[in-house]
Amino acid sequence: MINALLIRRAAVFSTLWLVCGANARDSSALDADGVQMLLPTLAGGAVLSLGKQDPNAAFNMAFDYKIKAIQGKEAGVMFWTMPSVALDYSSGNQGYTARVHLRAPGAKQRYNWKTQQGYLSSPQDVRNQEFTVYLRVHELITPTIAQAALKIRGGGHHANDPDAGSCTMMTLAPVTHKSVTRFGKELSHPLYDYVDLKPMLDAALRDNTWVGLKLLSWSHPKDPTQVVNQLHIDTTAFDAVGKPANQWRLLSEYTDIEGKSTGRYTKLVDWGALQTTLRVDGYRSVDFAHMSVREIMPP
Question: What is this structure's pTM?
Fold first, then answer.
């Protein structure tokens, strides 16, 4: 039965997913927060983590719109709550948003998606990566645009320098959204491309419910014109005493290919960057915990 199951997974999810799955079953592969690492950390690679820091004062974290997070504890889980702020989107819609960033300390953006040198700030920027965060949303306000976006490989988002945005993302949305999970690009702020993805599981963003998310992104070792992007999910999130449950499963996958159009963009996004972001739209507030990003060894 087990062998047959593995064969079916290989046919559907490819050898890359089997590598991730094998690593996920290795109970020794835990980070400092007790969270499963689906792929190993690259020796000497960058690791950015919230850990036990106060994100309001941490040197490697920042909030948009001068948000202040409030610490909480419930059922053994230590977390931070950030309120949303009202926002007029460039599309003309109105809504609410909350955003928190992990940033390489001391780094300054030198390049954008058009001028990048394999990185935006320095060769130490996180490139092949595993971005993890646990989140819980509260009070759905704008159902059609509500989503949680894990944004990577990007820089500053400024009206006076649109090309600095330079990021990609994967999303999880409530069932009220037209697509529960998507791959996105925002190379020039605020111009988005989204590719709707078919979820491999029955999962969605739900009010007052913890969920663990991991975005894995790596350059294909045998084809430099491709980047594999995977969104993994843990719908159990925490066990009875508040420890990470580590029941990770693949939700969606997208392979970014040089020259393949996502709408307005055909550029392969494979560079390292100084900024990694959790952005949540459409809810009154969001709790988050165990936020981290690591430079990984591609499978």
Answer: 0.90
